[in-house]
Amino acid sequence: MRPTRTTVLLTTGLVTLLGIPAAAADTPSTLYVNNSASAPRCSDTGPGSEDAPFCTISAGAKAARPGQTVQVLAYKSYDETVTVDRSGEPGKPISIVMRPNTGGPVRVKGLKVQGASHVVVRGLTTTGGVQVSGSTDIELDRITAASQTDAVVIGAESVDVRLTRSNLLSPVRIEGGSRGTVLGRNQIRGGTTAAVDAVWGPGTIVTNNTLYLSCDAAVSFRSGSTGSGAFNNLIYTSAPKSCVNPDPRSGILVGQDSATGTRADHNLLAGFPADGVVPYKWADVVHATPAALRAATGQGAHDILTANTWDVGPWDRSPNVDSGDSAAPGVLPTDYNGYPVVDDPLAPNTGKDGGFIDRGAHELQDTVRDVQLEIAQNWAPVGTTVQAKAVADNNWPGTLTYRYDFGDGTAPVVTREATADHVYQSPCACTVSVKAITAAGNEAYRQQPIKVTPASPLATAFTAQPYLPSASDPNQLVTPLAIEVDPRSSTMPWPIVRMDVDYGDGAKEVSDPIITTRHAYKQPGTYKVRVTLQDAKGATSTAERTVQVAYTPAGYVAVHPSRVLDTRMTSSPVQGGTATPIDVPVHYYSSGPHHTAGASAAVLNVTVTGATEDTHLSVWPSGQPRPVTSNVNVKAGGTSSNTVTVPIGADGKISAQLNSGKAALIVDFVGYYQPNAGQRFTPLAPTRALDTRTAGGALGGGQARTVKVAGVNGIPADATAVALNLTGTGSTENAHVIAYPEADKRPATSNLNLEPGKDKSNQAIVPVGPNGTITVYTNTGSTHLVLDAVGYYAKDGKALFTPVVPQRLADTRSTGKLAPGATTIVSGIPANAIGAALNVTATDTTGPGFLTVYGHGATRPEASSLNTRPGETVPNHVTTPAADGRVTVWNSYGGANHVITDLFGYFTQG
Q1: Looking at the whole model, is its pTM more than 0.90?
Q2: I need a labelling partner for 94 at 20 to 30 A (CA). Which of 192, 206, 803, 816 fits?
Q3: Are 379 and 497 in contact (CB under 8 A)?
Q4: Positive/negative CA dihedral, 789, 736, 579, 589
């Protein structure tokens, strides 16, 4: 168990590493050396400033004065042996250091300190030897000696040389009467001579080094090296390839002439005993155990021998951990890596007086891999005590320091506790962060948002806005008549644990916690939306608002015509009393059409054929009541078609139903309207684009004809689609006509069904093909075709389309027939509309003729909107200009007609 006692302070016997004091005020504190090609031009005769650095380290060393630092940038090797022969002053050393964070070591050929004093050299890597001669108060720190043959030599009566935290691949030799040498926290490999060999080096102290015994000894004090000492070292034995000295190798060797005043304790010798190796040879006497050494000399009382080397090192449960002497001569406050001396709570403190310094160059450190942050109240009103708790993933319990920042500008809380409390003084959306920091400075970080609210009662508030497709993602699935309810504007002092939304149409939603919700209504209308919130403290609050749900103005997206339903293929005819659902595939994936994306209305060509009796077809949004309007009228056994513009239901479908009887239903999909997408519409007074009676002759069966529609007749060249009234006359056979954009890509759809002896018309919206053209085709017989343009779609068009639930605007069967040459005014269109999408039906006709629909107050155009026939009910989709909410219907000088007008949508200025 870890003993409970006062921590032993690392003060006695410490060697204080020199700082780098500033130079005198009249000299720069720092000189610079930089040989990088990308650096400012260097010169060894220049001032050594950062803008004009020296090229060599030796030049900087020669120019340095007491108190100055020579800072060396490490971008490439320095092709020199650095010689330092100038001296600093007490408290004002000359320092030669590698600049931090320069990406690599400062490599030189060798290092010599000759006849100098008060010098610090830190961070150099030498490929040759290191020599200190005739010098005093020299600190060599973080030196890498990469040569395995050139030793580090401290000689010529040097005094107080300190070699620390260095990696030395060759031995260290102290000679020539050098005194007071200290070796601390180094890694040193022995060669043919001892790893540390003091030959007439009195007072040499070897403390907390990791030494690798090869030949001779790990530590050797000989030839008058009296008063020396070896403490807290970790010594590994190894099998050398060749040794000059035939005598057994020693862990610690003390010559007869060096034993006086020399001490050794708290060393760990790993790999002992071994063949040809003895732990100690003291005054020419071999001692096989620490006990034997202690009995003979009083030394080594706390030394440890281990038979293995692999289980000894800077890791948990190694015997070198927390077992050294914190007060030994030469102890440093930091280890080889600059890490502090720390107590491993998993290891007993077996060091001197309960100390916990490790043996060897490395001090075992805690490792923190991650930290989690828990906030007990991450949503609370001002004045609440908020507790943050860190849960760290590290090796040692109770050793981390935590730095909490509560994100409101107050000072961070630094503590050894895993929790910290804080009281916010003002509302904020703050971020709480924690750093879990080891004694070595390694850290893990985590942050978490916190919401600090006003200290006010719970008060529900919300917005309810239309939820529409975005222009940036037009293929996102957005149902028509959808709203978004956002309660985030509520006053919520505590977290919301339940939210109830009543949409006013029978639909309700419960969520936990508070969220932005979306709901699609089946039909337009006025609804009361109610939101109730309940917070974590049990308080509740309700708010209610009236929401107008309506279709949104939309642009037109033309598509290549495609057939979406043909009941002749499914043997499931449409019939009276039963609605037939129609899927409208607006968005296409690679696997085929799937859903209506954000479309609000579809444009279809609807054909009814093979009716069992005279009847009519109604088309309306799925999920809504069947309207009184009609779209296609057909006689028993006949075929009739019409363009239909209809809103899409909340389920992405459209419903169709016969008034009575049965018939086959064919539906072709030609385009759709979608908010924030597509093109705008510009209505035109009907303008003739083609009349084969006066140009080109009748269109024969199996023939196609290209018609120029964009870039002429007031339609711009960049129009993407045109709205046309397509009329067939003089047909010789039952046939159909297709209008489409590209001549070589004729679809399997139809726009107009022809019968001999009958003038038939239908409106079509046709995408514009190459060079502003469209193509018309008939499958059999021959027919004359008349095309009147009634509007176009383009990026710079005028108006957007707003679909409506189909509604009847006028029906002359309740007011009297429209006489030949007479007009009737149809109202009920929104006053701001500049155009309307209508279904106009002529019935109970007494003579052949036609109807023309045009904007109220405008000049009547010389074109027809639908052709009337005695004994038949004839509908047609009519897109027309409108003014003051009205359109005018004129009857030609044929027979009298009843006229029925239904509204399916209108155009307003975009």
Answers
A1: no
A2: 206
A3: no
A4: negative
